[in-house]
Amino acid sequence: KITPNKATGEDLDEVIYETRFNSKGEIYLSDFKRHKIWKVIPDKGVEEVAGNGQAGYKDGKGVEAQFNYPTGLAFDGQDNLYVADKKNHAIRKVTPDGVVTTVYKQP
Question: Would you place residue 7 in the very low, low, confident or very high pLDDT band (cuts 50, 70, 90)?
Answer without folding.
Answer: very low
